[in-house]
């Protein structure tokens, strides 16, 4: 992706990060979206890597509000480039898994637990988290393209159901081992962000 597209995506993520982290149910749902679209969400570790400074600032507050816990490893204060957040502590991992009705030792394939998205505003918060962790959008002056990428095929298929419930109709494909849902029409991309 070009530098301009990345900077446009970064600007969009900055805007999304202005949404306050207030209601616990929404913090949980947003965290869930982050986890299912981040670099690693397994019984061994959670690893979230981001180039967005605003998302990097938001993550510790989000996880404190959602799970009452801190990351095991935070990026250094003076870092340049991408930030990496890590949780390997087994008790913390268990608490996070339990919050979504998952067993730490029993989950082989990731799926969306739709029960975690029933509170008002939770579905939108979930999609916001997914976009912050695994989404990108091109500069509309160049072309129209928004996508959400995850290594979990089942999550991507289930995300289509979530988006359909929000009256959005994405398309799907695979690229470089990731499952993608995407939009290529200006009005659908605008609707996507209006709902978040």
Search tags:
7 strands; 196 residues; 4-stranded antiparallel β-sheet; alpha+beta; 3-stranded antiparallel β-sheet
Describe the protein.
Strand 6 and strand 7 form a beta hairpin. The strands form 2 sheets. A 4-stranded antiparallel beta sheet has the order 4-5-7-6. Strands 1-2-3 form a 3-stranded antiparallel beta sheet. The chain is 45% helix and 16% strand. 35% of the residues are buried. It is built from 7 helices and 7 strands. Helix 2 packs across helix 3 and helix 2 runs parallel beside helix 5. With 196 residues, the protein is α+β, with helices and mostly antiparallel strands.
Give the helix/strand layout.
Layout: H1 3-16, H2 24-37, E1 40-41, E2 46-50, H3 53-67, E3 83-87, H4 90-99, H5 122-134, E4 135-137, E5 146-150, H6 153-165, E6 171-175, E7 178-183, H7 186-195
Antiparallel strand pairs: 1-2, 2-3, 4-5, 5-7, 6-7
Helix pairs in contact: 2-3, 2-5
């Amino acid at each position: 992706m070009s530098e301009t597209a990345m900077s446009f995506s970064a600007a969009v993520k900055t805007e999304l990060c202005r949404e306050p982290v207030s209601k616990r149910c929404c913090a949980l749902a947003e965290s869930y979206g982050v986890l299912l679209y981040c670099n690693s969400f397994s019984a061994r570790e959670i690893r979230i890597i981001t180039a967005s400074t605003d998302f990097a600032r938001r993550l510790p507050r989000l996880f404190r509000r959602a799970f009452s816990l801190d990351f095991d490893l935070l990026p250094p204060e003076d870092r340049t480039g991408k930030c990496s957040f890590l949780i390997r502590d087994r008790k913390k991992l268990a608490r996070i898994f339990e919050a979504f009705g998952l067993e730490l030792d029993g989950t082989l394939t990731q799926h969306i637990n739709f029960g975690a998205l029933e509170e008002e505003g939770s579905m939108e918060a979930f999609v916001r988290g997914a976009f912050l962790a695994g989404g990108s959008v091109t500069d509309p002056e160049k072309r129209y393209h928004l996508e959400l990428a995850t290594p979990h095929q089942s999550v991507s298929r289930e995300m289509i159901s979530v988006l359909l419930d929000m009256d959005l109709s994405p398309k799907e494909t695979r690229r470089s081992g990731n499952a993608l849902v995407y939009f290529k029409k200006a009005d659908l991309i605008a609707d996507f962000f209006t709902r978040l």
